[in-house]
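Two proteins follow. First one:
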Amino acid sequence: QVQLVESGGGLVQAGDSLRLSCAGSGRTLSNYHMGWFRQAPGKEREFVAANTWFNSGGYYRDDVKGRFVISRDNVKNTLYLQMNSLKPEDTAVYYCAAGSTSTDPEQYDYWGQGTQVTVSS
């Protein structure tokens, strides 16, 4: 069993940056493909980024490419999402998940509770 806890969300202005963290416990995250998703009010949960357990690089949705970077620190057992040049449309609850690199949330086995990101214009 893997427990995931996100942190680092907040209220920022357009153009600002945030770094989200996803701390793992129970098992080492280096054994899992990992991903980030987000869900805005009234919308379905959508894929943001993912990377493989061997940290071979990231996969991103088109509208965050060049602005967001997914990474992990295996010593700290933590996954990160560096978000730059934030836009109001990035506003959502952000979730980390373990078990896949798929864009389909149903393919993931473990989820955190989410952290709110709000970007004002």
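Second one, unrelated to the first:
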Amino acid sequence: EVQLVESGGGLVQPGGSLRLSCAASGFTFGIKHMTWVRQAPGKGPEWVSSINNAGTGTYYVESVRGRFTISRDNAKNTLYLQMNSLRPEDTAVYSCAIGWGLLPGSIRGQGTQVTVSS
């Protein structure tokens, strides 16, 4: 059974940092591109970042470029998202997904809540 389990979310003040993790199981993690998606209250899902299977290629949405860093450890079957200089508009549920981009029907985890507020 394919499982994606996110962790690392929480409440942080503007300007703060968080590191999200996504533990993957039930499939060959090292051959799959992976993506972080977020969904803010009342809004649709937003593609945040993707990384290729080898970890050598990445994509970031303009609003997070320079602040967020996606990475992966294929030996640990884990995907990461380092988030720095957080802003209130980053508040959302963050989920990891298999594949590159926001794909219809892609497998996603339950997500972890990130709240940026003073």
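SUMMARY FIELD: The CA atoms of residues 5 and 94 lie 11 Å apart. The mean pLDDT is 97.
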